[in-house]
Amino acid sequence: MTAIRKGRAAVAARLLVLAMTTSALSLPPGAASAQQTFTPREEEPEEFPDAPGREETFYFCTACHNFKLVAQQGMSRPRWDGTLDFMTERHGMPKLEGKDRDVILDYLEQAFPETTATPGWQNPFLKR
Ligand code: HEC
Predict the structure, then answer these.
(1) What per-residue string of b and e applies to 16-32 under the rule 16 or more CB within 10 Å gives b?
(2) Range 39-120 classified under CATH 1.10.760.10
(3) CA of 120: how far to CAs of 5, 116, 117, in Å?
(4) pTM as predicted
């Protein structure tokens, strides 16, 4: 008898907790889309130009920001190289060295060469 009652109370308590958790998790409208903006994985590497190193580059860079930020740029290899330094110095990106750096630079140079830059478009971040 008592055991059953205890069991029921426990179930009821658990349901109550569940109900409270569920309502706490339901986000107000707008919060979900704001959150998506900062979820890099909503993109897939397949959306970007196919070249060796695409996955490596994609996952490395999207640790911090979406890949569109990268893909909208068009740079020569030395400028991509400088961008990598900039990411490390300014934004705390893990330092890329040796083969890893080559793989990523190879991809960036092939996929987003200088000529793909939108004519007249200025990188607002480089003016600082
Ligand atoms: C440790 C975090 C981090 C990593 C990893 C990272 N970035 Fe960034 N990156 C930033 C931040 C912070 C900004 C500032 C702008 C923003 O987030 O909107 C930025 C901005 C940029 C910009 C915009 C222009 C500029 O110079 O600010 C480019 C291009 C860029 N990153 C390229 C890359 C590439 C390519 C990789 C991968 C090889 C990469 N980033 C990896 C943090 C990072």
Answers:
(1) eeeeeeeeeeeeeeeee
(2) yes
(3) 74, 12, 8
(4) 0.69
pLDDT in tens, 65-111: 999 999 999 999 999 999 999 999 999 999 999 999 999 999 999 99
Among all chains, which residue has been given the structure tokens 């590497």? 45
Atom of ligand 1 nearest to the CA of 104: 38
Residues 50-77 pLDDT 10s? 999 999 999 999 999 999 999 999 999 9
Q: Does residue 70 have its Cβ closer than 6 Å to ligand 1?
A: yes
Which structure tokens are listed for 24?
Answer: 């706490």
The CB density around residue 104, as the number of other CB atoms within 10 Å, is 20
Cβ of 62 below 6 Å from ligand 1: no
